[in-house]
């Protein structure tokens, strides 16, 4: 008789346990921040695969399924990943776009494209919101709090764990901020050009001399007039380094470099498409950018 009574007792506690939310994330830096907040409670899914372009990505059926089963999708926003915006339209998952919670927001500089033809000009995003907001550590620190608050609302039993994890991770981001600022001290006044217009947050925050980008913020091909304008800038000796990107052909950037004294730096990786996903990915990404920039700019 005794075992009949003990059986339901063994089964009962399970439905009473708190449900840790199923979370899907867009890109490695957001995945890293959510991983910090969830800690040992769970692991978020990362959609963007290694080597992929954040602006142009094709979801696989299994990834569509992760979105369908998610309690919440935590992502930068539609300005960065229109492919995820489309996927979310037909989904019941809650959506937490972090751009809506960013203390630092910036727009693309319209002047960068002043010499384009109308056709070039209309062909890509301009004068809109720059979505590469994770590159400012202030935004990352704020997002940790926003993520913890969202998860606490879905899973109140673990609210203190989420808040504690977020506070610890935010302190790490602040320490990283100081470390990177110091590592860029010599590089700060030296002008450079990048492959696509993704670095405004990073360069504004750390006080770097960003002289422009070959492609617009959505990584679309540049117009001929814009390429000529950059070429003239580089030929005039006003640029110290040009930086290609991990996922893009550097041929056009090499053409801009021409026979000038400007040097070609290492490939930048603003979205973390080449690094191992996980909690450490945010720090690895920022340190990688700073190191690649300093390597070329300091040796000039
Ligand atoms: Zn981008």
Largest sheet: 4 strands, parallel
- Poorly predicted residue ranges: 1-16, 110-126
As laid out across the biggest beta sheet, the strand order is 2-1-3-4
Radius of gyration: 22 Å
Our count of domains comes out at 2
Tell the overall outline.
globular
CATH class of the largest domain: Alpha Beta
Pairing-aware structural class of the strands and helices?
Answer: alpha/beta
What CATH architecture label of the largest domain applies? 3-Layer(aba) Sandwich
CATH superfamily of the largest domain: Nitrogenase molybdenum iron protein domain
The fraction of residues in strands falls at 5-15%
Counting DSSP E segments of at least 2 residues, the number of strands comes to 8
What binds here, in terms of ligands, is: zinc ion
The oligomerization state is single chain
Number of helices: 12
List the helices and strands and how they pair.
Elements: H1 2-11, H2 13-16, E1 23-25, H3 28-38, E2 45-46, H4 61-69, E3 72-75, H5 82-89, E4 94-97, H6 118-122, H7 137-154, H8 159-183, E5 192-196, H9 200-206, E6 210-215, H10 224-235, E7 241-243, H11 251-257, E8 263-264, H12 281-298
Parallel strand pairs: 1-2, 1-3, 3-4, 5-6, 5-7, 7-8
Helix pairs in contact: 3-7, 3-8, 7-8, 8-12, 10-11
Zinc ion is lined by residues 54-55, 132, 196, 198, 219.
Describe this structure in words.
The chain has 300 residues and is of the alpha/beta class. The chain folds into 2 domains: 15-114 and 128-180, Nitrogenase molybdenum iron protein domain (Rossmann fold), CATH 3.40.50; 187-298, Rossmann fold. 45% of the residues lie in helices and 10% in strands. It is built from 12 helices and 8 strands. It has a 4-stranded parallel beta sheet with strand order 2-1-3-4, with helices on one face. The chain has a 4-stranded parallel beta sheet with strand order 6-5-7-8, with helices on both faces. Helix 3 links the parallel strand 1 and strand 2. The chain is globular, with a radius of gyration of 22 Å. It starts with a helix and ends with a helix. The model is unreliable at 1-16 and 110-126 (pLDDT under 50). Bound molecules: zinc ion (ZN). Zinc ion is lined by residues 54-55, 132, 196, 198, 219. Residues 54-55, 132, 196, 198, 219 line the site of zinc ion (ZN).
């Amino acid at each position: 008789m005794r075992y009949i009574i003990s059986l339901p007792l063994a089964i009962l506690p399970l439905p009473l346990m708190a449900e840790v939310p199923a979370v899907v994330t867009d890109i490695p830096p957001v995945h890293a921040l959510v991983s910090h907040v969830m800690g040992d409670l769970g692991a978020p899914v990362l959609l963007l695969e290694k080597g992929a372009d954040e602006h142009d990505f094709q979801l696989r059926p299994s990834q569509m399924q992760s979105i369908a089963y998610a309690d919440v999708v935590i992502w930068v926003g539609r300005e960065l990943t229109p492919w995820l915006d489309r996927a979310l339209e037909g989904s019941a998952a809650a959506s937490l776009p972090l751009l809506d919670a960013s203390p630092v927001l910036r727009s693309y500089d319209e002047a960068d494209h002043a010499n384009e033809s109308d056709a070039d000009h209309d062909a890509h995003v301009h004068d809109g919101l720059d979505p590469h907001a994770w590159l400012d550590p202030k935004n990352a620190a704020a997002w940790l709090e926003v993520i913890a608050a969202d998860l606490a609302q879905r899973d109140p039993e673990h609210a203190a764990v989420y808040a504690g994890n977020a506070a610890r991770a935010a302190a790490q981001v602040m320490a990283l901020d100081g470390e990177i600022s110091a590592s860029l001290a010599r590089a700060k006044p030296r002008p450079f050009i990048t492959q696509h217009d993704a670095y405004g947050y990073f360069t504004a925050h750390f006080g770097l001399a960003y002289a422009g980008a070959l492609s617009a913020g959505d990584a679309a091909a540049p117009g001929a007039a814009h390429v000529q304008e950059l070429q003239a800038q580089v030929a005039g000796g006003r640029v110290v380094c040009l930086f290609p990107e991990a996922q893009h052909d550097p041929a056009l950037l090499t053409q801009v470099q021409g026979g000038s004294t400007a040097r070609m730096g290492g490939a930048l990786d603003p979205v973390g498409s080449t690094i191992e996903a996980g909690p450490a990915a945010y720090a690895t990404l920022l340190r990688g950018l700073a190191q690649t920039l300093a390597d070329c700019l300091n040796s000039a």
